[in-house]
């Protein structure tokens, strides 16, 4: 029956079907156009059109086009037509699936190659050329640190700093120590050399230059004028844990041939360091890298380069290098201290763990066989004002002065430093 032979109601129904088909055709076209625009522009402006989820839009677009086809042609199809349509749809679906799979494999292979090319050697070249380094963080600490050439150290203080940091002056020497001067690698005669490894507490968080307890210790010891020269090198870096502290000593401290190594203990030394060097696992199955490339352009720019240095608030723990995550908890601290003890035996220096130490870390030190001194025991409670913050991870400047005094007393008591000579008091009127 042709259009002229149709009755009025049938003709009206046919017109309504075609209008409905055109409506679904328009919806499908809009949905697929949004998907195409997202692929073109990424997720930069997706929030404007509320198209943050491209897969539902794609499926909705395909579904709308199918309904439009059924409304416009399907009611007239024979079984052979539907069979032919089903075969074509199956072939198109299989082709799309294979294309997506090939695309995913290709993107992962490309990212892996880029990651390998962006190795630590490439990072070293950037550092030597003075190019900006990939430290991504909104935390203020990012302005004074840089990725380390030694991947086991992860990050370190920038050398030759002279800057305001937290309204305090921070200067570093050419080795990246918070010191005003460099130290000769060859230890001078009659020199007793102490190296401190620690985190923000020993570094001197929120205090002025030369007020950290390692610096005060050096000043106090040299005031003795007993014929020896005392050097206290501060290798502490904010955010370190015990594992990184030991790696820093291995990387930068051993060449100075220390007589004593002081580990500045803090309870967060059980944790991962503040900044982490991440390496993406391009074999993981929980995300699609092709999807990120097509629809999440900002995410793509973060994952593609390979190694990246991010802070604790941003990094994905699944991507943390296993050799770094192994340094956490009591087991990681124990392993690090065992390595430190062996290092001391091989290089002829003594080791002391010093700070506000609770029972768990004391037990670890006893198990490993490393001497420890807890400020809870050394410094009588209530002797100094609470605002000194002696037992907290970030003492104020007066708290650092007290820590330097008691650290010196403890090292003398252990026989690691000579007893200070008592100055004869002048006789009044003499």
Distance between the termini: 137 Å
Q: How does the major sheet shape up?
A: 5 strands, parallel
Radius of gyration: 33 Å
* Strand order across the largest sheet: 7-6-8-11-12
CATH topology heading of one domain:
Rossmann fold
Helical residue percent?
40-55%
- Overall structural class, as computed from helix and strand content, comes to alpha/beta
Can you tell me the CATH superfamily of one domain? SGNH hydrolase
Beta fraction = 5-15%
CATH class of one domain: Alpha Beta
Average pLDDT reading: 82
Low-confidence stretches: 301-306
Q: What is the overall number of helices?
A: 15
What oligomeric assembly is this protein in? single chain
Shape: elongated
Number of strands: 12
Q: Which second-level CATH architecture of one domain applies?
A: 3-Layer(aba) Sandwich
Write down the secondary-structure element order: HHHHHEEEEEEHHEHEEHHEHHEHEHH
């Amino acid at each position: 029956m042709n259009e002229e032979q149709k009755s009025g109601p049938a003709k009206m129904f046919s017109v309504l079907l075609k209008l409905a088909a055109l409506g679904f055709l328009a919806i499908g076209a809009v949905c697929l156009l949004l998907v195409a625009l997202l692929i073109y522009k990424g997720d930069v402006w997706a929030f404007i059109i509320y198209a943050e989820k491209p897969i539902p839009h794609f499926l909705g677009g395909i579904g709308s086009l199918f309904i439009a086809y059924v409304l416009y042609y399907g009611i007239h199809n024979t079984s052979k037509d539907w069979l032919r349509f089903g075969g074509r749809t199956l072939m198109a679906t299989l082709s799309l699936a294979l294309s997506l799979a090939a695309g995913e494999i290709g993107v992962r292979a490309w990212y892996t190659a880029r990651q390998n090319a962006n190795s630590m050697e490439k990072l070293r070249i950037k550092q030597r050329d003075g190019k900006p380094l990939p430290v991504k963080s909104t935390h203020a600490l990012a302005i004074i640190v840089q990725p380390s050439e030694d991947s086991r150290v992860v990050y370190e203080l920038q050398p030759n700093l002279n800057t305001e940091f937290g309204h305090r002056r921070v200067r570093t020497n050419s080795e990246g120590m918070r010191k005003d001067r460099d130290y000769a690698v060859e230890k001078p005669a009659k020199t007793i050399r102490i190296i401190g490894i620690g985190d923000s507490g020993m570094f001197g968080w929120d205090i002025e230059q030369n007020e950290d307890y390692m610096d005060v210790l050096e000043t106090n010891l040299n005031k003795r004028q007993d014929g020896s020269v005392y050097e206290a090198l501060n290798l502490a870096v904010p955010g370190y844990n015990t594992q990184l502290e030991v790696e820093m000593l291995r990387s930068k401290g051993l060449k100075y041939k220390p007589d004593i190594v002081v580990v500045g203990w803090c309870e967060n030394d059980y944790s991962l360091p503040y900044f982490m060097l991440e390496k993406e696992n391009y074999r993981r199955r929980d995300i699609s890298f092709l999807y990120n490339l097509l629809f999440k352009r900002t995410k793509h720019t973060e994952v593609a380069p390979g190694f990246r240095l991010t802070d604790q608030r941003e990094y994905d723990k699944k991507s943390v290098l296993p050799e770094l995550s192994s340094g956490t908890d009591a087991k990681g601290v124990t392993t690090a201290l065992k390595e430190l003890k062996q290092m001391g035996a091989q290089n002829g220096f003594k080791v002391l763990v010093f700070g506000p130490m609770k029972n768990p870390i004391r037990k670890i030190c006893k198990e490993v066989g490393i001497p420890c001194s807890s400020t809870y025991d050394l410094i009588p409670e209530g002797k100094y004002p609470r605002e000194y913050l002696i037992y907290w991870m970030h003492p104020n400047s007066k708290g650092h002065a007290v820590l330097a005094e008691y650290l010196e007393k403890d090292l003398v008591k252990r026989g690691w430093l000579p007893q200070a000579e008592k100055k004869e008091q002048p006789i009044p009127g003499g």
